[in-house]
Amino acid sequence: MYRKLSRRTTRSILTALVALCFCASQASAQTPGYTAGPVSNGGSIKGTIKASSKPDETLKVNKDNAHCGDTQPAEKFIIGGDGGLKNAVVMLKGIAKGKDFASKDDPVISNKDCKFAPHVMVAREGAQMKVRNDDPVSHNSHFFLMAAGKKSNVINLALPKQGLEIGKPKILSKAGLLSLNCDAHNWMQSWIWVLEHPYAVVTGSDGSFDLSDVPAGSYKLTIWHEALGEKTVDVTVGAGKATTTNVTF
User: Fold this and answer.
1) Into how many domains does the chain fold?
2) pLDDT above 70 for 149
3) Least confident span in 59-63, 93-97, 156-160, 237-241
4) Is residue 9 situated within a structural domain?
5) Residue 98 above 90 pLDDT?
6) Domain annotation covers residue 137
7) 45 vs 102: CA distance, rounded Å
8) For residue 44, is it within any domain?
9) What is the CATH classification number for the domain harbouring 143?
10) pLDDT given for residue 148 in this prediction
11) Is the CB of residue 214 less than 8 Å from the CB of residue 204?
């Protein structure tokens, strides 16, 4: 014979089942494709990204000129005297195992002097992106995910007052390339590469980069630039050895 369960018992069982399903779905959603851990006798990939000399664009300012000025640099082509290309992103794609992020601090992008700072950055998937208004004029930060040739809306944050800072975990919840724009000032542009691993850097003013503690093996090294596109090269890293890779657009 089956005994009829009380209403309280039935409610407790249903609550437990819902909690179990929720935990299972969360565990599934949070299962990473990258495993972080100590790297023994890792190597490094160093080099310089170069491009042919090209003048940067000058963008016309059409709003808040008293603070923003009449023109702003596009910051697309910042090329040194020896051809070093600034603001290129150098990253390993498809790496499944390696070191953890050196810092778990949340990244910050500032609206400052009517530009986004930094202009290009890499960020950890799952971190909370913070945006801040350091100007005495109203801004907004409009994030888009760039994937498969499409531009999909992620979130649009209003920053009407100087000193206002907003943090949102949704922004970096998915790996990929994000475009950041200010609808109030259409010349403002920034780019964020969101990655689940730390093997990615933005080149400095001399175009140099350095990826350290790379497990020995063969990899695809991808170089991305907002105007020049992507290049991918094969690299092999030896245990405890430095590999030099220079790429020219």
Assistant:
1) 1
2) yes
3) 93-97
4) no
5) yes
6) yes
7) 17
8) yes
9) 2.60.40.420
10) 84
11) no
> Could you give the CA distance from residue 120 to residue 178 in angstroms, rounded to a whole number?
10
Number of residues assigned to the chain: 249
pLDDT single digits (tens) 180-227: 999 999 999 999 999 999 999 999 999 999 999 999 999 999 999 999
Token pair listed for 209: 């980069």
Asked whether residue 209 is assigned to any structural domain, the reply reads yes
Q: Which residues of 191-207 are buried (b: 16+ CB within 10 A; e: fewer)?
A: bbbbbebbbbbbbbebb
Q: What is the residue type of 247? A: V
Structure tokens at 17: 């089942």
Beta bridge partners of 228: none
Q: Tell whether omega for the bond before 169 is within 30 degrees of 0, i.e. cis.
A: no
Q: Is 136 exposed, middle or buried, given 0-12, 13-18 or 19+ CB atoms closer than 10 A?
A: exposed
DSSP secondary structure string for all residues of the chain: -PPPPPHHHHHHHHHHHHHHHHHHHHHHHH--SSEE---TT-EEEEEEEE----PPPEEEP-S-HHHH-SEEE--S--B-TT-BBTT-EEEEES--EEPPPS--PPPEEEEETTEEESSEEEEETT--EEEEE-SSS-EEEEEEEEETTEEEEEEEEEE-STT-EEEEGGGGSS-EEEEEE-TTSTT-EEEEEEESSS-EEE--TT-EEEEEEEPSEEEEEEEEETTTEEEEEEEEE-TT-EEE--EE-
Tokens encoding 224: 């991305």
Partnered with residue 60 across adjacent β-strands are 71
**Structural domain for 119, as ranges:** 39-248
| Dist. CA 207–CA 82, nearest whole Å | 9
